[in-house]
Amino acid sequence: xxxxxxxxxxxxxxxxxxxxxxxxxxxxxxxxxxxxxxxxxxxxxxxxxxxxxxxxxxxxxxxxxxxxxxxxxxxxxxxxxxxxxxxxxxxxxxxxxxxxxxxxxxxxxxxxxxxxxxxxxxxxxxxxxxxxxxxxxxxxxxxxxxxxxxxxxxxxxxxxxxxxxxxxxxxxxxxxxxxxxxxxxxxxxxxxxxxxxxxxxxxxxxxxxxxxxxxxxxxxxxxxxxxxxxxxxxxxxxxxxxxxxxxxxxxxxxxxxxxxxxxxxxxxxxxxxxxxxxxxxxxxxxxxxxxxxxxxxxxxxxxxxxxxxxxxxxxxxxxxxxxxxxxxxxxxxxxxxxxxxxxxxxxxxxxxxxxxxxxxxxxxxxxxxxxxxxxxxxxxxxxxxxxxxxxxxxxxxxxxxxxxxxxxxxxxxxxxxxxxxxxxxxxxxxxxxxxxxxxxxxxxxxxxxxxxxxxxxxxxxxxxxxxxxxxxxxxxxxxxxxxxxxxxxxxxxxxxxxxxxxxxxxxxxxxxxxxxxxxxxxxxxxxxxxxxxxxxxxxxxxxxxxxxxxxxxxxxxxxxxxxxxxxxxxxxxxxxxxxxxxxxxxxxxxxxxxxxxxxxxxxxxxxxxxxxxxxxxxxxxxxxxxxxxxxxxxxxxxxxxxxxxxxxxxxxxxxxxxxxxxxxxxxxxxxxxxxxxxxxxxxxxxxxxxxxxxxxxxxxxxxxxxxxxxxxxxxxxxxxxxxxxxxxxxxxxxxxxxxxxxxxxxxxxxxxxxxxxxxxxxxxxxxxxxxxxxxxxxxxxxxxxxxxxxxxxxxxxxxxxxxxxxxxxxxxxxxxxxxxxxx
Length: 823
What we know:
Elements: H1 10-15, H2 29-34, E1 42-48, E2 54-65, E3 69-74, E4 80-85, E5 92-95, E6 99-105, E7 108-114, H3 117-131, H4 146-154, H5 172-181, H6 186-198, H7 201-214, H8 218-233, H9 237-243, H10 249-255, H11 268-275, H12 287-306, H13 319-338, H14 340-351, H15 357-374, H16 379-392, H17 394-401, H18 407-423, H19 425-434, H20 445-454, H21 462-475, H22 488-499, H23 501-510, E8 514-516, E9 526-528, H24 534-553, H25 555-565, H26 567-571, H27 580-595, H28 599-607, H29 612-621, H30 627-642, H31 645-659, H32 667-683, H33 696-705, H34 715-736, E10 742-743, E11 749-750, H35 803-811
Antiparallel strand pairs: 1-2, 1-7, 2-3, 3-4, 5-6, 6-7, 8-9, 10-11
């Protein structure tokens, strides 16, 4: 009785060599032709891709039209999956009782994988009948060149099989020479394979091996090595079935230990039987499954360890061996997937708090290998595999084990999580968005992943890099589904920024904290803590890479977060880091923000005087021509080329005196030129920097309309949050009035600041004159300065009516001056 396993997993039945139906008598043949069962000729069509991997083209039913053409009709829609004429000279090969493989053109291989052996036998008979071959052969013919074909036709019938020498110790050298000599000829390889199978010669050779080893006949053992290696290179599936059976495979491995080029034989059998232990995390009751696992491991060991690595010219020599391993893995995964009782028990023990650490480690490693095997499945079967794991609760289980202290367990769990994210980011996102109903932020799966990235103990942060890539995949809007309601993107991003973003940015904010160090004169001096630890700097660089990705892809959510947390101001304190790569990451973050050419970002940068740490870094770098220098110059060049007026005005008004001496590029003179051109247009009434025609409410609507994809966001709340943020900024300005440098009567600039790093005395350039040793002070707000209204204009310029009065008042004040920005 045939096991109807194909309904659960068609791939398993297609390659299940052990599940064979009962034989069909010849007297029933006519009846079967008339009334063919639905499953008898059910097949899967495979093609071999450029990477030498079999690709599933679909499932259908095979038939022969006019007895000369193979056709496969899809069982889903009746379309034709395959139509192939049986040509007299095409080499067809029958493998593993249920596979027929052939090549239709150069580099185009096809395979039919039958559900039942009887169906495979019937189609094989049709092929052999067209080609005039005996159905008992496993291959109809081999491709050959013209001269070889002529020689083959001239051979008498009696010579179609190679005559093998007697299997005796004294004839081993002769047998080895014979096997080695046929490898260059496809026809002779086929003849030798048929001879070895027809006479049960392989088992006789293995018996001879045991005799030679008992008598320590070293020369004979060396010949047996050459023989067994040559037989493997015959690349015949029928021989592999014999060689890799339970009673033969260890003797095959034994033959391959006696390489004549080695002084002492390798101990492969000792490793396979004593060192390599088969661990059953849950007892496997299916003996067929256990045997298949053992066989696959040993054959993989032969291919990867024992046999030499093939050169680029020999990569297809063992293609049949690779196919043998491939189909074995498919069958193992399918059999395990069908056993729901087994998988349920594994999950139960994995999440049970009473499970011992060693046991849990073995369970996680089992799932890791299980998922690795699943990569051999075809896409539709791999989908079914991961859906089965999801239904059984793989994600809640990972949430538990990834939070454990065992490094090996966390590493294996991370690998499993990577398989799941690669398979379906949407499935993972859907799970995590359902979690807040039952869990706190600290135990959310994504937060567990972020904490594991932050706490990676590897000095090179190898695990953190892997986890950062997974987070980036989950946060990428490009792989978010767009159903009718288009809510996945907005819902997930709202969830992430509400529940997870504070965890991701915690190390960044902690390492750029502000501490009040001197309040005696009523001013708040700021000391930014900049990390000097290399591992911490690497971690911050990874976090900045993710945040830069967010700036590019999450326009609305990240904008609100940056402005509410003053994130860019905090990030730019890292420009003081002794690790240049970290300073470059901070600069790249600012460059992405400016690259958006968003006036709200520009206003935020101007209000916070956020160019100051960048210009300080440029001046500290001196005349060194390095990546940091080029990156900063490129930032200002972009502003000049794109003619971002608000930023140009801010830079020229506040920093040009410090930058005008840089003449090896024309960037800063170009900025000054742009600035003068705009002033000239203003004087002629052709344009103004200040935007007068639009109200703040209209600007707000324009900003929000830019992000039309965020349909489900509460815009009223966003306006309120942003208004509160800007109100707090105005309060700071009214208290400090310290972000804009003022020109003194001597032509120098004096700086006070609260949003950038304290000048590091170790990295500061020596002051050009004694005027740089100015005392700390805060410039009081001029009584004549009109009150600031909510975001009226980007910048006030010298043509304002009250400017002369302000300059007169400010010249009498003594604000602190930054040495690095002094003239």
